[in-house]
Amino acid sequence: MKQEEKDSSWFREIFNEHYKYLRNFIYYLSGDLELTDDLTQDVFLHLWEEQEKIHRETVKSYLFTVAKNLYFKHHRKKNTHLNFTSSLLNEQDNESPEFLLELKEFDRKLQDAIAEIPDKTRAIFLMSRIDNMTYAEIAERMQLSTKAVEKHMSKAMKMLQQKVDRKL
Amino acid sequence: MNQHKNDIDKLIAGWGVPESQSQDEAWQQLIKKTQQQRPVRKVNFQWGKWAAAAAAVLVLAFVGLSQSGLFAPQKTNSNLTAQNIWLPDSSLVQLKAHSSVKYNYQLIGGSRMIHLEGEALFDVKKGKPFEVQFPGGKLKVLGTEFNIQAYGKSAGRVDCYRGAVKLTIHNKDYILRKGKSLSFDEKSVDGPFNFNVKNKLNLPDNTYFWNNRPLKEILTLICQRSDIALEAPEEILRKRFTGELNLSNSKQSVHILARAMNLNYQFEANKLTLFETK
């Protein structure tokens, strides 16, 4: 297969469209920044190599499925440790240092609580909450039914509530 | 509680995955990788074919090698006393001084192929064809017990104690039956002649018995057993000897032999020289 025969403009388009969300998704799964960057590259490399074989309309779910499989097969972490940046924390300039400290502490506890949720459920929950995806969008990427996504969501919220109640 | 939940949602919505490289940098890196990756994929594509070819070569090599006996097990006896070796088919090989034997059972046909250098007594279990190759010739077993002396092509002897063996020496076939012996050198074959089966050569204490045999045979054996060179005029080597001799100590046996045959001898470093007494 020669390079010219591969459709690089299409590839570029797909990359631009999905890079951020794919990278976020892998981070939601792993909580490991270095692994996230490597794995994102790997997923796109897979797409590059197999672009003749896949249906272009399902490329979205292809990317997420490859990412999911690669992560669960080779890189699964026992203990996930999340470390998100928080825009809310940075906005609170006018608040007292005490409040900021408290908020920071709460933010840490919340991240730890979310890290304890099972990988797939956590990823779905965060896709919904951080990336603002609809259940249908998540379902398409994860190759699940909307119903299943709903279940993951309610499971995540239930677990979160318990953990936050217990910790605070 | 609801207020609390909203706070949590707000907080989570404000989260972002930490930045590492920009999207553009990631793209550049990716493009670089796509260009490196290709040749590897090509090899991968033909992997199945190569693997099949490699497997076929391996199988052929394995069969070929096992047939050729290149890696056949080898036993060597570098002591002066005989050493008993049981082959996998429970045939017994009694390996004499400075001798080695290789055995190799063919996958196809199951022939038992033996490669001998030196001297050994064989007691063969009945079964598949048993073939011994030695310097100067080869032998196929029809019977069961025989002795081969063949340290080199220069001199050798085969004795048959039981049954019969089929010998091939200098491209000529001989059948040796019980109580018959045959000796050979590079050019000629002597025999078959009779020997006394009861005087089992050299068993078990290195005592050999000869009945009217040329000195060449005896001296060659002594020298080969202890890896020394022999130098003697033809007329001495043609002389014949009858009697018993213990070969545990080669110097001593040469001494006895020289006395008996009225000869002078001299040992130098790894060399034995014999001459007539004046």
Provide structural commentary.
The complex is a heterodimer of chains A (168) and B (278). Chain A is an all-alpha fold. Chain A has 8 helices and 1 strand, in the order αααβααααα. In chain A, α5 (97-115) packs across α8 (146-167). By secondary structure, chain B is an alpha+beta fold. The longest helix of chain B has 23 residues, at 23-45. Chain B is elongated, with a radius of gyration of 35 Å. The interface between A and B is medium-sized, with 39 and 25 residues.
Terminal CA distance of chain B: 130 Å
Rg of chain B, nearest Å: 35 Å
- SS field, number of helical segments of chain B: 6
Taking the sheet with the most strands of chain B, its summary is: 13 strands, mixed
Return the average pLDDT of chain A rounded to an integer. 86
Report on the biggest sheet of chain A. none
One letter per element, helices H and strands E, the order of chain A comes to HHHEHHHHH
Task: Tell me the structural class of chain B.
Answer: alpha+beta
Number of alpha- plus pi-helical segments of chain A: 8
Overall strand count of chain B: 19
What percent of residues of chain A adopt helix (DSSP H or I)? Answer: over 70%
Structural class of chain A: mainly alpha
CA distance, first residue to last residue of chain A: 58 Å
Model regions low in confidence, pLDDT < 50 over at least 5 residues of chain A: none
Oligomeric status: heterodimer
Percent of sequence in beta strands of chain B: 35-45%
Rg of chain A, please? 18 Å
Number of E strands of chain A: 1
Report the portion of residues of chain A in β strands: under 5%
Low-confidence spans of chain B:
none
Largest interface: A-B, 39 and 25 residues
Short key terms for the protein model shown above:
heterodimer, A: mainly alpha, 8 helices, B: 278 residues, alpha+beta, three-stranded mixed sheet, 6 helices, elongated
Topology:
The complex is a heterodimer of chains A (168) and B (278).
Chain A: H1 8-30, H2 33-49, H3 59-75, E1 85-86, H4 87-91, H5 97-115, H6 119-129, H7 135-142, H8 146-167
Helix pairs in contact in A: 1-2, 1-3, 1-6, 2-3, 5-8, 6-8, 7-8
Chain B: H1 2-13, E1 15-16, H2 23-45, H3 47-68, E2 74-77, E3 83-86, E4 92-95, E5 99-105, E6 112-123, E7 130-134, E8 137-141, E9 145-152, E10 155-162, E11 164-169, E12 172-177, E13 180-185, E14 189-194, E15 207-214, H4 215-225, E16 229-231, H5 234-238, E17 240-246, H6 250-261, E18 263-268, E19 271-276
Parallel strand pairs in B: 6-7, 16-19
Antiparallel strand pairs in B: 2-5, 3-4, 4-6, 5-6, 6-9, 7-8, 8-11, 9-10, 10-13, 11-12, 13-14, 15-17, 18-19
